[in-house]
Amino acid sequence: MTATLPVADTSPSDLGSRGSARRRVLALASAEIRLLLRNRTAAVNSLLGPALLLGSVAAIAVSNGMELDGPSFIAKAIGITLILVAYYNLVTTFVARREELVLQRMRTGELTDGEILLGTAVPTLLVTVVQVVVVGVGVVALGRWSAPVDVVLPLLALLGGGALMVVLAAASTSVTRTVEAAQFTTLPLVLAATLFSGLLVPLSGFPERVAEAFRFLPLTPVIELSQLGLVGKTWSGQAVGTAGAWAAAPVPLAVLAGWLVVGSVVARRVFRWAPRR
Q1: How many other β-carbons are positioned within 10 Å of the β-carbon of residue 174?
Q2: What is the pLDDT of residues 235-256, one digit of tens each?
Q3: Of all residues in the chain, what percent are helix, strand and coil, respectively (each to 5)?
């Protein structure tokens, strides 16, 4: 988990007021990346925090005589980085920018609301992807890599999960008055994601009806798609090939799409661009 990032010193004219939407987003994202790199504590915590957690999970597995399954480990890395890096850091970043009136100031320029949120989120999303890649490289270096059943499904999980974390973080800011309060307001989703989404405890370990209900939690479809593509296992533990993985994919894909729609609608309604007075 990262410390609060310093507020960007940017004006609407600096963000490509005459350029395209892509140029404006890239300009804002570039400013946010520079802020992240200047804050060494935030940068180091963003990179090392989840990596240390994953290392602890691997050490516990090995100490208990369990074989380290590389593909399953990468699937866990996707879920952990999304919830602990993307979601939590985006909540703190959005709140920090709001409380310093940066979001309100940027809205007076040509940046649209969506461009402001996307540009602000890009550095955190990049860190998330980098961490997953680093874990993948580590798995290969340890000789624990095996060919995935399908590469598209985990990519959809990572991209769709990243987009979902952005809208969920934006919605969570409505109940987060300060950056410090984020550690409490994000806790319900973090706990639900880590305990009941198949991330640390497989859904097959729960009673069937309970597990089926847990499949509709926000992070569960991300874990399901990652497991289907990387490991070739369904939420119930059944082994499948490529055809079977895609046959089992419509439900988690639909749940993920549903959360994206719901999250976007809620975020649009409750997101505050200025501090409460």
Answers
A1: 15
A2: 988 999 999 999 999 999 999 9
A3: 70, 0, 30
